[in-house]
Specification:
- The complex is a heterodimer of chains A (about 850) and B (about 110).
- With about 850 residues, chain A is of the alpha+beta class.
- Helices cover about 50% and strands about 15% of the residues of chain A.
- A 6-stranded mixed beta barrel of chain A has the order 3-4-9-6-8-7. Chain A has a 6-stranded mixed barrel with strand order 14-15-20-17-19-18. A 4-stranded antiparallel β-sheet of chain A has the order 13-21-12-22.
- In chain A, a hairpin with a 2-residue loop joins β3 and β4.
- In chain B, strands 1-3-2 form a 3-stranded antiparallel β-sheet.
- Classes of the chains: A alpha+beta (about 850), B alpha+beta (about 110).
Chain lengths: ~850, ~110
C-alpha cells in the first residue's frame, strides 16, 4: 500500500530515469572497457539498454494505459461468467445506496434543510392555551392578537394568518381551493415577494369592504393563463366579488395546512371584545436578542397580565381554564409530528446501508478467497501484485457502478411514489427530490468497502505455502456475523410492532356502516343568507334524493365520522360548575345530523330515543349524546332528561335536553378512542358546509345531480373510501418500514450464508484433519453450529436492545401496541436466529460431509 | 517476497539479498556491486549485469537503499548506492531466511543420499 502511495506521489519521470540509467550504464561499460574488455563484449554482457529501461520503469509505474485497458476488458469478460455473483454484487450495492439515499432525501428536506423563509430560525407560531382543559394550541382572538403584537420587545413583528378553504369562481367555473387569510405585514415578515401587482395594505385588514385577493403563481397560470391582465380582474370568492391585486412569485408556499394556498385574502382584524373565540394563528419573528425560552417566559408574563385584566379563559363561575400563550418554532409546527417517524426511517436506512456494506464485503471476501489460487498462479507467472490488485479493483468497480445506477433509478422511482402517495405525515413538505450528495457519498462508501476488502485479501495471496496450509479462522468472522444478526433484529422487531399496530387498527370497528353508502360535501354560497334558507336548501336536497333513492336512504350531517380533530368544543351541564366533572376535559364533538342519520349509518340507539320529526320542525331543544359522554359525565345515573349547552351558560341560554344515548362512533380517526359527542337536529342547527350521505343504486350520481351547481361538491367518495383514507398514513408508514425490515432480514440471512460458505472454504483442511482423526459428522456439525450461533445470539441480544430504542421513538405512531411488548422481540429474535441457523447450515453443510482423503490429497 | 523474474538462474530473492549484503560493506556504484558479487563468490555467481539496475530501482522504491551522484577516485560522476536502516533490517532477516532455506536444501540433499 505504502509503495503504491510512493509511486503516486513520487511518480518518477520516465525521461529523468532514462537519463540516469543511461549515464549509469555508460559508466558501467566504461569501467569494463578500462578493465580491458572489448567494447562490443562489454555492451553485450550488460544487455539490451531499452529493455533495462523498460524493466526499471515498470518498477516505478502504476501501469501503462494498454495494461489498464486490458484489465478493464478482463473484468468485463470475467464478471458475466459468474452471473449470480455479479447480480448479487449489483443488488447489494443498489439496495444499500437506494435505501439510504431515499430516506435521507426525505429526512434532509424535513429535518435539516432550513425552511424557505429568510432567517427562518427566528420564525415562531403563537397560539393560545387553556392548559387545564387540555387545549395546548388553539387559535388566537383578534383582541389577543393585537395585544401580542404590541409586545415589540419579544417580536420584531407578528403577523396573522388563517388557512381557510375558499370557493372561487373565475368566469363560470366554481372551484374549491386552499385559501389563506393574512394580515398586511404577513408577506414582508415571511420574506415573500410579488411577481405582479401589490400585497394588502394595512387598512384592508380593518374594513369589511376590502375585497382584494392575491394569487399564487400556480393559480394565476392555471386560471388566468399567466396574463398580466389578471391584475384588476374580478373573481367571486364565496359568492362575493373580489378584485385581484397581486400575484406571488413562483414557489412561495406557506404549507401549514398541508396545501399551498392558491388565493390569499386579507384577514379581518377589527378588534372584537370576545377574547376566547379566536380564528387567527400568529406568525412572529422573534427579536434578535431573545432566545426561544426567554420569549416564552415573557409571553407567560403577558398572559398573566391579560388574564388578570380580562379574565381570559375563566369560566362563568371563576373557574380557571389555565390560559397561557404558547410559542412554537415554525419548523416544529410544520414538521414536528413527522420527526420521530423520520428518525426511525433514517435509522432504518442507515441499518440497511450497514448491512449491505458488510454483505458486499463478505461477497467480495468469498470471491477473493475462492480465486486465491488463480491469483497465486498469475503472480507466480510474473504478474505484479499491483496488476492483480488493479484487476480486482476493476472487477469491483463494474458491479458497484451498475449498482449505483440502479440505486439512482430505484430512489427516483420511490420518491415519485412517495410524492404521489397520500401522506398527511409529509403533507407540509413540497415534492421530494433525490439528494445527490447522499447518493454519491453512500456509493463511494460502498465502493471503498469493496475495494478495501478485495485488496486486503490480495495481500494474503502470495504468502504461498503458509496460506495453502490453511490458516486459523479469521477473527473478523464472529464480529461480522453478530453485526448482521443484530442489525436485522433491530429492524425486524419494530416492523413486527408496526404490522401488529396496523392490523389492530384495521380491526377497529369504526362504529358506523360503510357498505353501500356514498357521500359528498358542499359549501353553500353566502347568497343563502340565513339559517332558514340553508336549512330549507338541505331539506329540499334531502327530499329530492329521498324520491329517487327511498326515504330512508339519505341524510345530511355537519361532518362525516372520522373527520373530526382530536379536540372538541366546550359544553356546560346544568347545575354543575364547569370543569368539575373530574379528570375528563368537558369537551365534545358536536354536530347537526339529518332525520335518518342513525338508521342509515346503523348507529344503534342504546337508551331513550333518536330524533323524531318534531325535533326537526320545532325548537324542541332535543339532543342525543353518545355512550362515552354519558359514561364520562353521568357515571352513576342516566343522563336522560339532563340539560346541557354548548359553550358557557349565558343568561337566557336555550338549554338542550338529552333525549337519547347512541353507541360510540370513531369521530377523530380510528386510532383515537371514541370521544364524547353531542348530536342535534340539522334543520334546527343548519351549517353552510355539510355532507350528504346516501345509499342505494347510483347514490353518488344522484347526490351530485341534486346539489346546487353554485355549491360544487367535493370529497365525493364512497363511505368505504372515506374509511380507507383513515388508514392511508399508518399503511404507508408500515409498508415502508416493514419493507426495510424484510430487506434487512434477507440481507442478514444472506450474510450469514456467505460467512458460512467462506468459513467452509477456509476450514476445509482443518475439518478434513478432524474428520480423519475420527470426529463424527455430528460432532463437526456441532462445532460449525456453535460457531455460527454463538455470535448470532450475542448479536441478536444487542440488536433487540436497539430495536427497543427504535420502537420507543415510534411509540406515537403505534396503535394498541406497546413498544416494550416482549412477544415481538421474542418473535423477531427467533425468526432471525432460525434464519441464521438455516443459512449457516446451508453455507457450511459441505464441511462436515467432507471426504478427508480428497481434501488432503488436493493440497 | 522479492522476485527476480529477469534472472531465473538464481533462487527467488537471492539477487536482492546479494545486493544488500554487498552494500552492507559500504556505498558502491552499480559496476562495483556487480564486481563485488563476482569476486566474493569466486566468480561462481554471475550477475546478469542488465538485471542489476531494475533490481536497484526496486530496492530503492522499497526504501532499503538510497542513492546519489558522487565522484569516483578518478573524478568520474557515478551513482552510488547505500544501505538504509530499513535495508539493514531487511538484510538481517533475509540472511536468516536464506540460511534456513539453504539448510533445508542441504538436508534434503543429504537425506536423499
Amino acid at each position: 500500500m505504502l509503495q503504491i502511495w510512493k509511486k503516486l506521489v513520487r511518480s518518477r519521470r520516465r525521461d529523468r530515469l532514462a537519463a540516469r540509467l543511461h549515464e549509469e550504464l555508460q559508466f558501467h561499460v566504461d569501467q569494463k572497457i578500462a578493465a580491458g574488455q572489448p567494447v562490443a563484449q562489454a555492451w553485450r554482457e550488460v544487455g539490451n539498454r531499452a529493455r533495462i529501461l523498460e524493466l526499471a520503469d515498470d518498477v516505478w509505474s502504476l501501469g501503462r494505459p494498454e495494461q489498464l485497458w486490458a484489465d478493464l476488458r478482463y473484468a468485463a469478460r470475467t464478471l458475466p461468467k459468474s452471473p449470480v455473483f455479479f447480480l448479487l454484487a449489483v443488488a447489494g450495492t443498489a439496495l444499500g445506496v437506494a435505501a439510504v439515499t431515499s430516506v435521507f432525501s426525505v429526512a434532509d428536506e424535513a429535518l435539516l434543510r432550513p425552511l424557505p423563509y429568510p432567517e427562518s430560525n427566528r420564525l415562531v407560531v403563537v397560539w393560545d392555551q387553556l392548559r387545564k382543559l387540555g387545549l395546548s394550541r388553539f387559535p388566537v382572538s383578534n383582541a389577543n392578537y393585537l395585544d401580542y403584537r404590541a409586545q415589540t420587545a419579544v417580536f420584531e413583528d407578528l403577523a396573522a394568518f388563517s388557512p381557510r378553504a375558499l370557493m372561487v369562481s373565475v368566469g363560470d367555473r366554481a372551484q374549491r381551493v386552499a385559501g389563506m387569510q393574512a394580515s398586511a405585514n404577513f408577506l414582508p415578515l415571511a420574506g415573500g415577494s410579488l411577481e405582479l401587482g401589490r400585497w394588502f395594505d394595512p387598512p384592508e385588514n380593518h374594513s369589511a369592504q376590502a375585497h382584494v385577493a392575491v394569487l399564487s403563481h400556480e393559480f394565476w397560470q392555471a386560471r388566468f393563463g399567466g396574463s398580466p391582465e389578471a391584475i384588476g380582474a374580478t373573481m367571486r370568492i364565496d359568492d362575493t366579488p373580489f378584485r385581484v391585486v397581486g400575484v406571488l412569485i413562483p414557489g412561495f408556499g406557506f404549507r401549514v395546512s398541508g396545501q399551498t394556498p392558491d388565493v390569499w385574502i386579507p384577514a379581518a382584524l377589527d378588534p372584537d371584545p370576545a377574547r376566547s373565540a379566536g380564528q387567527l394563528q400568529a406568525l412572529g419573528r422573534l427579536s434578535r436578542s431573545l432566545t426561544l425560552a426567554q420569549a416564552r417566559a415573557r409571553m407567560q408574563v403577558v398572559a398573566a397580565g391579560l388574564k388578570q385584566r380580562y379574565r381570559t379563559g375563566m369560566g362563568p363561575h371563576g373557574e380557571d381554564g389555565g390560559y397561557s400563550i404558547e410559542v412554537v418554532p415554525l419548523r416544529e409546527v410544520l414538521h414536528g409530528s413527522t420527526r420521530p417517524t423520520l428518525y426511525a426511517m433514517v435509522a432504518a436506512g442507515t441499518i440497511l446501508l450497514l448491512l449491505s456494506l458488510t454483505n458486499t464485503a463478505l461477497l467480495w471476501m468469498g470471491r477473493t478467497v475462492a480465486r486465491r489460487r488463480e491469483a497465486a498462479v498469475r503472480m507466480a507467472l510474473g504478474a505484479s501484485r499491483l496488476r492483480v490488485c488493479r484487476q480486482r479493483f476493476f472487477e469491483a468497480l463494474l458491479p458497484s457502478l451498475a449498482g449505483g445506477v440502479l440505486a439512482l433509478a430505484v430512489t427516483a422511482g420511490a420518491l415519485r411514489l412517495l410524492n404521489a402517495a397520500p401522506h398527511q405525515d409529509l403533507a407540509n413538505f413540497g415534492a421530494f427530490t433525490v439528494n445527490y450528495r447522499v447518493f454519491f457519498l453512500s456509493s463511494a462508501v460502498i465502493l471503498a468497502c469493496v475495494v478495501c476488502t478485495s485488496l486486503a485479501l490480495t495481500r494474503w495471496v502470495p504468502l504461498g505455502p503458509a496460506e495453502f496450509a490453511g490458516r486459523s479462522e479469521s477473527r473478523a468472522r464472529p464480529v461480522l456475523l453478530a453485526i448482521q444478526v443484530g442489525l436485522s433484529c433491530a429492524l425486524l422487531a419494530p416492523s413486527l410492532l408496526l404490522v401488529s399496530s396496523l392490523t389492530a387498527l384495521q380491526r377497529v370497528d369504526p362504529g358506523f356502516r360503510t357498505a353501500g353508502l356514498s357521500t359528498a360535501t358542499g359549501t353553500l354560497p353566502p347568497s343563502y343568507g340565513n339559517a332558514a334558507q340553508i336549512a330549507a336548501y338541505y331539506e329540499r336536497v334531502e327530499e329530492r334524493l329521498a324520491e329517487r333513492l327511498g326515504p330512508r336512504n339519505v341524510t345530511v350531517a355537519w361532518r362525516l365520522p372520522l373527520s373530526f380533530g382530536p379536540g372538541g368544543d366546550p359544553f356546560s351541564i346544568e347545575g354543575r360548575v364547569w370543569g368539575s366533572s373530574g379528570a375528563v376535559p368537558q369537551f365534545a364533538h358536536h354536530l347537526g345530523v339529518g332525520r335518518e342519520y342513525f338508521s342509515l349509518l346503523r348507529i344503534p340507539i342504546l337508551e331513550g330515543r333518536g330524533f323524531d320529526p318534531r325535533d326537526f320542525s320545532e325548537a324542541t331543544g332535543a339532543a342525543v349524546v353518545n355512550r362515552t359522554l354519558a359514561r364520562a359525565f353521568w357515571p352513576h345515573e342516566s343522563p336522560l332528561g339532563k340539560r346541557i349547552v354548548m359553550g358557557a351558560p349565558q343568561p337566557g341560554v336555550a338549554w338542550l335536553t338529552i333525549v337519547g344515548i347512541v353507541a360510540d362512533v370513531h369521530s377523530a380517526g380510528l386510532s383515537n378512542p371514541p370521544l364524547p359527542q353531542i348530536y342535534r337536529p340539522f334543520s334546527q342547527y343548519p351549517a353552510r358546509t355539510a355532507s350528504l350521505i346516501a345509499g342505494g343504486a347510483g347514490a353518488l350520481d344522484h347526490i351530485l345531480a341534486a346539489l346546487d351547481p353554485e355549491a360544487p361538491a367535493y370529497a365525493v367518495q364512497t363511505m368505504e373510501q372515506h374509511l380507507a383514507a383513515a388508514l392511508d398514513q399508518p399503511k404507508l408508514r408500515t409498508t415502508l418500514f416493514t419493507a426495510y425490515g424484510l430487506l434487512a432480514f434477507a440481507l442478514a440471512a444472506f450474510g450469514v450464508y456467505s460467512l458460512a460458505t467462506y468459513a467452509a472454504v477456509r476450514r476445509r483442511r482443518e475439518f478434513a484433519l478432524r474428520s480423519a482423526l475420527g470426529a463424527t459428522a455430528r460432532r463437526l456439525f456441532g462445532v460449525m453450529f456453535m460457531d455460527t450461533m454463538k455470535p448470532a445470539v450475542y448479536g441478536a441480544a444487542g440488536g433487540l436492545a436497539g430495536a427497543y430504542w427504535l420502537a420507543r421513538a415510534m411509540a406515537a405512531s403505534l396503535y394498541a401496541t406497546k413498544p416494550g411488548e416482549p412477544r415481538f422481540y421474542l418473535a423477531a429474535g427467533l425468526l432471525v436466529l432460525t434464519a441464521a441457523a438455516l443459512a449457516g447450515w446451508l453455507g457450511g453443510r459441505r464441511l462436515w460431509a467432507i471426504a478427508p482423503a480428497e481434501v488432503l490429497r488436493c493440497e | 517476497m522479492a522476485r527476480t523474474a529477469a534472472d531465473p538462474s538464481l533462487l527467488p530473492g537471492t539477487l536482492d539479498l546479494l545486493i544488500l549484503k554487498t552494500l552492507s560493506h559500504g556505498p558502491l556504484h552499480g559496476y562495483g556491486i556487480a564486481q563485488q558479487i563476482k569476486l566474493a563468490s569466486d566468480e561462481v555467481l554471475q550477475v546478469e549485469e542488465g538485471s542489476l539496475y531494475p533490481a536497484l530501482q526496486r530496492l530503492e522504491l522499497k526504501g532499503w537503499i538510497e542513492s546519489e551522484w558522487q565522484l569516483t577516485p578518478h573524478n568520474r560522476r557515478a551513482r552510488y548506492y547505500r544501505l538504509s536502516a530499513a535495508g539493514l533490517r531487511r538484510l538481517v532477516s533475509a540472511e536468516a531466511e536464506y540460511g534456513r532455506l539453504a539448510d533445508a536444501v542441504r538436508r534434503v540433499l543429504l537425506w536423499s543420499h
